[in-house]
Amino acid sequence: MKKLYVGNLPYTATGDDLNQLFSQIGVVLSAVIINDKFTGRSKGFGFIEMEDDAKAEEAIKKFNEYDMEGRKLVVNEARPQEKREFGGGDRNRSFGGDRRGGSDSRGGYGGGNRRFGGDR
Fold this sequence. Notes:
Strand order of the largest sheet: 2-3-1-6
Strand content: 25-35%
CATH topology of the domain at 2-77: Alpha-Beta Plaits
Oligomer: single chain
Helix content: 10-25%
Largest sheet: 4 strands, antiparallel
């Protein structure tokens, strides 16, 4: 089984359209168009899973730069999905020293003997 990336799709293309096209070469296990999660509109790319690796390679050769509704398709082997990090990295990371204020006894963040409003 081999997964293929299909890019530069017409925005009107459906998973059925992809299935029908790639079925000319071999057995298609799945055909998915990726849609924007907010608008629901096609993002112009999708993925095909083909049963036979040799047929998938044949499909890449036949359909890369294939004209579909005036657009030249980009077809290649799909790369594994990269792990995404949300919120800027490690949530367990420490951002500074000891909250108690280190080795002195003034309390957290240098508090303790703070005076407000001048000398008394």
